[in-house]
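Exercise 7b. C-alpha cells:
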C-alpha cells in the first residue's frame, strides 16, 4: 500500500488567505480524486498573539499593522470575497468587525485532532468568523461550534485552563517558527517542502501529483 502524503497546514482561524489557500488545496485534492491518499493536519499559528481579550477593530488593526488605507482594505476585502465565492466560502466583512485572540481556538483544535474532527472544527471556526460575524474568542461561541460538529464541549473546555495543553500549543507554534514559518498559510508536504501563501489550485495539483509519482517509483 502506498504511504499517504502528509500535509501540514500552518494557519490561523482569522487569516483570510488561510481559508482561501485551504479551499484551493481541498479543490486540488478532489479534482485529482486522491482524498484517500492524503493525511492532513492543522498546525497552530497566531497572527496576533498579543491581541487583548476585547480584540481590536479590524480596520484600525490592519492600518496599524500593515499601513493599509481604508480604501486599500476595502479593495482587498472585495477581492477576498470574490475569491471566496469561487470556492464556496463566504466572506462577510462589515463595519465594526473585530480582530480577536485565537489561542483558545488553537487549544480546541488540538482536542479536535484527537477526536478525528480537526478539519471540521477548523472550517466551522473560519466560517463563523468570516461568514457569520461571530467572535471566535468568545467561549460561548466556541462551545456552540464544538457541539455543532458533535464534540464534547465539557471535555474540550477542560483543556482551556490546563497548563499542559496550553504549553503544547505554544511549543507547536515555536517549532514551526523555528523552521522558518513566519507567514500563513504555509502548506508543508511530507515535512520536506513547503508552499507559502494561497497558491492556485493547479500549483497544489502539480505538487501532489509529483509526490504521488515519487512514492510509486520507490
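Sequence design result:
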Amino acid at each position: 500500500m502506498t504511504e499517504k502524503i502528509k500535509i501540514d497546514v500552518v494557519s490561523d482561524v482569522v487569516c483570510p488567505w488561510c481559508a482561501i489557500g485551504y479551499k484551493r488545496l481541498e479543490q486540488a485534492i478532489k479534482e485529482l480524486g486522491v482524498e484517500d491518499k492524503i493525511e492532513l493536519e492543522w498546525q497552530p499559528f497566531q497572527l496576533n498573539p498579543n491581541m487583548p481579550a476585547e480584540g481590536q477593530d479590524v480596520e484600525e488593526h490592519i492600518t496599524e499593522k500593515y499601513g493599509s488605507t481604508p480604501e486599500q482594505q476595502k479593495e482587498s476585502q472585495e477581492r477576498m470575497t470574490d475569491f471566496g465565492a469561487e470556492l464556496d466560502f463566504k466572506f462577510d466583512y462589515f463595519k465594526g468587525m473585530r480582530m480577536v485572540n485565537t489561542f483558545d481556538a488553537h487549544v480546541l483544535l488540538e482536542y479536535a485532532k484527537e477526536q478525528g474532527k480537526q478539519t471540521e472544527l477548523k472550517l466551522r471556526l473560519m466560517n463563523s468568523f468570516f461568514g457569520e460575524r461571530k467572535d471566535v474568542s468568545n467561549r460561548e461561541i466556541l462551545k456552540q461550534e464544538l457541539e455543532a460538529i458533535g464534540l464534547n464541549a465539557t471535555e474540550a473546555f477542560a483543556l482551556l485552563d490546563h497548563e499542559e495543553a496550553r504549553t503544547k500549543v505554544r511549543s507547536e507554534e515555536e517549532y514551526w517558527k523555528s523552521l522558518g514559518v513566519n507567514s500563513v498559510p504555509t502548506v508543508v508536504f511530507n515535512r520536506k517542502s513547503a508552499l507559502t501563501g494561497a497558491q492556485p489550485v493547479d500549483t497544489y495539483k502539480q505538487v501532489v501529483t509529483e509526490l504521488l509519482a515519487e512514492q510509486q517509483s520507490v
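Instructor comment: The chain has one domain: 5-217. Residues 5-217 form a domain with the Glutaredoxin fold (CATH 3.40.30.10).
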